[in-house]
Amino acid sequence: MRAQTWAVLIDLPCLIVSSFATIDLQWQSFVSLQALSSMGRFVGEFVPPETSPEFLHKVIVGAWETLAMSILGTLLAALLGIFLAVPASQHQRDGTGWTRTPVQWVLNALRAVPELVWASLLLISAGLGPFAGTLALALHTAGVLGRLYAEALENAPSGPALALKAQGVGSGRVFFYATLPTVLPQIMSYTLYRWENNIRAAAVLGVVGAGGLGQLLAFHLGLFQMHKTATVLLGMIVMVVCVDALSHQLRKVLT
Amino acid sequence: MDRGESIRDPATASRLFLILAGLVLLWPLLKATEFRPWALFEADSVQATVRFLGSFWPIAVEPDFLRLVARETWRTVAMATAAISLALVLAIPLSLIAARVLSLSALTGTMSRVPFLIRRLIHGVLILLRSIPELVWALVFVRVVGLGPTAGVLAIALTYTGMLGKVYTEILESTDPHASRALLRTGSSRTQTFFYALLPTCAAELISYTVYRWECAIRSSVVLGFVGAGGLGQEMDNSMKMFAGAEVATLLLVFIGLVALADRASATIRRIIE
Fold first, then answer.
1. A interface mutation test: which of B81, B136, B163, B268 has the most A CBs within 10 A?
2. Which domain holds residue A11?
3. Which chain B residue lies closest to A214 (C-alpha atoms)?
């Protein structure tokens, strides 16, 4: 075994042990019998979920808002992502290759900041509400998709593009009629996969005030209205499960 | 032949139609998300943004603040590591029970009723665990165990048990079943079969996925700070609420650095394994 392997084998247990040692985990508050019973009581308060028609209507509106945020956020991210992926995938020999490194840095920064942090930053300029959440989703996802798209573009077969280029077709048309069609299935499948992720993300963005089901959840949980909280949680689970199934089907059809 | 004519896209009409139809479908979405980009450029919004961004520089580097940041950074990493360790403790046995390749009754055709139901049940539990986002778990646990890292660790541990359990099961079931079947048929116990047939073939994949999830857990643990689970996120939330741009800038830079470092570490570990 090489030195690197040994380093990992030794560091990993050290990391785990020192994590548990310094984090001051209150074991007694979740493994003791008393803690379990208090947790049970807490869960018990959720039953029965609130089912009054007007509240259900509110949950459905919240779910639709969350769904819209995730779809629009993913679409915007796909547009921004493809826009950034083109310069991020250029090779040095193309003459425009100097854009590659800076754009990759931009993509990394967009990706490194989680949606929730983006949302809380954007609240300042976009105000409370789903718009800030949509933009936050779009920015983070653009970083993720941009990198994946750039990889797809780099690995695309260059034959069709070269054939068009040899005919004297401009580089814009080469991209739209040769390069893009060859990577489109892959791009679609990446985008759908991120959409599944974004549904989950959109559901919780509301906790910082960015609209959707999360905002309902934070509001009612804050007021200790457990029955209403339970309904919101159920709505969230149903939505996530449905979208997973839908996206699974779509991916099967499209790719 | 007219050159201008020949290079026109033959599918122009249908593409235009698709784009227009897409825009019409987009309309309700724009309405639901209160999509008003021009609101970003209204005078007071621009002013607030400029003032906030302007306060980013110079970034906060007071020794006291940096000490605090260092402590919270470590706490973020420790939360993620502890949570992944707990998730492993739960996910490994669950995925071993759920994996169909280790079923004795399935050797002779269909699985018996009881093991089948148990496997269904565990699948259901895993789906439930990962369908609820970790932030929601954290909100709930903050109520039960109080503010602090314990709530965050529990939240990540539960969600990641769901994710790890599902993927471990899939990895185990995607292996070539010949070796494990041969062992089970010749009277090996299921533990033996796991250690001598399944583990050798998929150890690299299992470890690689776990390390990748550890990296994700670091991101998660920052986010969970926003609901009071400690670590970098909580500091970021505090600084943001006080509009302390300089502190926000430092925290963002530290966070991006931390994610890059975790990315590098996990890539190195995965390369060594493969």
1. B136
2. 3-44
3. B136
Same domain, A92 and A9: no
To the nearest whole angstrom, how far is the Cα of A140 from the nearest Cα of chain B?
12
**What average pLDDT score do residues A146-167 get?**
87
Alpha helices in B99-148 (DSSP H): 113-131, 134-145
Domains of chain B are 3-54 (no CATH), 63-273 (1.10.3720.10)
Is pTM, for the whole model, over 0.80?
yes
Contacts of A78 (CB under 8 A, 6+ apart): A145, A187, A191
Q: Tell me: do A106 and A16 sit in the same domain.
A: no
The pLDDT of B103-115, averaged and rounded, is 78
> In angstroms, what separates the C-alpha of A27 from chain B's closest C-alpha?
8
Full DSSP string of A64-109: HHHHHHHHHHHHHHHHHHHHHHHHHT--GGGTTGGGHHHHHHHHHH
φ/ψ of residue A19, rounded to 5? -60, -50
Per the CB < 8 A criterion, the answer to whether A164 and A172 are in contact is no
Asked if A88 and A134 sit in the same domain, the reply is: yes
Q: Do B131 and A237 touch (CB under 8 A)?
A: yes
Q: What is the pLDDT of residues B243-270, one digit of tens each?
A: 888 899 999 999 889 988 888 888 888 8
Dig out the tokens for B153 from the structure: 């660790």
Contact criterion met (CB < 8 Å) for B127 and A241:
yes
ipTM over 0.90: no
Inter-chain touch B150–A72, beta carbons under 8 Å = no
A117 with B36: Cβ contact below 8 A:
no
What is d(CA A219, CA B45) in angstroms, rounded to the nearest whole number? 26
A92 has a pLDDT exceeding 80: no
Domain identity same for A21 and A65: no
Residues A9 and A80 placed together within one structural domain of the fold: no
